[in-house]
Amino acid sequence: MYVPTWVWLATVGGLGVLLALDLVIVDRKPHKVGMAEAARWAVFYLACAAAFELGVWLFAGGDLAVKYFAGYLTEYSLSVDNLFIFVIIMTAFRVPTIQQHRVLLIGIVLALAMRGLFIAAGAALISHFSWVFYLFGALLIYLGWRQIHQRNHEPAFRENALLRTLRNVIPVTDDYEGSHLTVVRAGKRWFTPMIVVMIAIGSVDLVFALDSIPAIFGLTQEPFLVFTANAFALMGLRQLYFLIGGLLRRLVYLSIGLGVILGFIGVKLVLDALNDNSLPFVNDGQPLDWVPTVGIELSLSVIVVVLLVTAAASMLTTSRRRHARAGQGRQSPSAGTPALASAPPVRAALLSPARPAERVRRSAEGSLRRRAR
Known about the structure:
Largest sheet: 2 strands, antiparallel
Order of helices and strands: HHHHHHEEHHHHHHH
Distance between the termini: 35 Å
Radius of gyration: 22 Å
Strand order of the largest sheet: 1-2
Low-confidence stretches: 335-361
Helix content: over 70%
Strand content: under 5%
């Protein structure tokens, strides 16, 4: 797929206009983003993603349009897992409610820039070394297994190297100053915690991209489609934070569903690598033509089915637990808090009003270290 330079520039410029429009309209007067407003923006970004897919269909053909949609759906579903960490970061740094939209917007812009570099590096590797698919496939299979196996683990928390370096290099105030990133005190310029939170979100997303970027390369190797699918998924993710952030604890099987998707795409990558094999110690460097391949239509179907089954099973289980707790509550007046009792360890830390902020911070960083390993 040949994409002229002007198309790249026009696409990046269009994405920039969308983000600027969002920033100007929503942040013109800082306020708490409500469900209705978040829903309108979520629909808007979904419409933008659909319009872009229609453009791909008209100008590049149906096959590439299906690949874009499969990539977008995969990135969007994998990015939902980021919301847990975003909630924890917002809580740990005590970000004011009216400033959360700006923090997420700037943080996601940083994340998209870093993902762009990651995508460019991945595309360069794939174009020169086809055996990279073996590595990507093995990585995704391992990450999928770990996603399922460690879904209830709660390791210890530590700030990543970037945040530790940032704190040591620049002076940071203890409190926020509205939406300002810097403030002058006693003739000295200080940074506010706002800049730390934005960089935290951007850098943390890069850790999550270690599985999502190889996953989408398993569906399409077109850098243009990979980048745009990531861009629209990330932009819609911000609105999803305000729309369903409080409902995420009900998706009790999300980790299992995402693990299955990662494992499936990992197997697909390995099969593709075998069909295009060039490693001398595998079949004397010749492709294994008899190995089956997984088409994009089948890949899209599997992803959709897994997501639907995951959501349905999660809601059914949550509903049963809620009714069971309601029955126990009628029998025992001293029953514990239902939402906290049913939430996984990391999410329970967010719901507990008595849990100190430092323990929340340690819990959050533990989740990030688990993804980084």
